[in-house]
Write a structure and sequence with these properties.
GO terms for molecular function: acetylpyruvate hydrolase activity; isomerase activity; metal ion binding. It comes from Streptomyces clavuligerus. Keywords: Isomerase, Metal-binding. This is 5-carboxymethyl-2-hydroxymuconate delta-isomerase. With 258 residues, the chain is mostly beta strands. It has 2 domains: 47 residues, FAH (SH3 type barrels, Roll), CATH 2.30.30; 196 residues, Fumarylacetoacetate hydrolase, domain 2, CATH 3.90.850. The protein contains 4 helices and 20 strands.
Length: 258
């Protein structure tokens, strides 16, 4: 299925899958990422459903320092090969769900990123064929407890907290990831602005590099890196990640869940 926006949503007491034109949602009979889901014929207004994270990944593979301007602002060197780490699926939340500011941190930051949703089993795929293994793309926020990252010198734990991987609002298929605009706004103020043409390791090469070592399954996510402009968020803020051709993912920031 190409050229559609696929959703996962709550309707009444059920979790369902569908595709949307931005006004209505057409129900599907299954998860389109993992099956040949078909329309059921039922539709409802988009405003009458609650959007959830559009995919439930088995694993999330993320890359750090993949934009030169972000490398410059960190004061670190460019990696010789993609610098990879994992985020746990338990970190995933959907649109409008709160990012919880954990009590262990005093410096939580936003990181707007293009997320790649894998559509079929991918193992040792060459870069020339890699994009054919992609189901679609969505917005992501690789939320990071920066003080914890600085204290232990590696990213995984600082990025692993519950609610630290917002995804959404839906998965858009049929996109060319080569030159998409990516932005992040905090309370309406733009903090990040770049294009995916500035990725040091483009999407196809990332898939090839990762799949040479790790089998990627349908529904798995690759976070492609964040551009310059990362900065702090605080309880009461609203974070918006926007990607051209995809849409806008919005999440409030709240104090840690009690």
């Amino acid at each position: 299925m190409e050229g559609h926006r696929f959703t996962r949503f709550a309707h009444r007491s059920d979790t369902r899958y569908g595709r949307t034109d931005g006004i209505t949602v057409e129900f599907l009979d299954g998860d389109p990422v993992r099956s040949a889901a078909r329309p059921t014929g039922e539709t409802v207004p988009l405003k009458d459903v609650r959007l959830l994270a559009p995919v439930r990944p088995g694993k999330i593979v993320a890359v750090g320092r993949n934009y030169a301007d972000h490398i410059a602002e960190t004061g670190m060197g460019a990696p010789a090969v993609p610098r990879l780490f994992f985020k746990p699926p338990s970190a995933v939340i959907g649109p409008d769900e709160p990012i919880h500011y954990p009590p262990q941190s005093r410096q939580v930051e936003h990181e707007a990123e293009l997320a790649v949703v894998i559509g079929r089993t991918t193992r040792a795929v060459p870069a020339a064929d890699a994009l054919s293994h992609v189901f679609g793309y969505t917005c992501a926020n690789d939320v990071t407890a920066r003080d914890i990252q600085k204290a232990d010198g590696q990213p995984s734990w600082a990025k692993a907290f519950d609610t630290f991987c917002p995804l959404g609002p839906w998965i858009t298929t049929g996109l060319d990831p080569a030159d998409l605009e990516i932005q992040c706004h905090i309370n309406g103020e733009r903090r990040q602005h770049a294009r995916t043409s500035r990725l040091l390791t483009p999407v196809a090469d990332l898939i090839a590099y990762i799949s040479a070592a790790v089998t990627l399954d349908p529904g798995d996510i690759i976070l492609t890196g964040t551009p310059a402009g990362v900065g702090p968020i605080a309880p009461g803020d609203t974070v918006e990640v926007s990607i051209s051709g995809v849409g806008t993912l919005s999440n409030p920031v709240a104090s840690a869940a009690q």
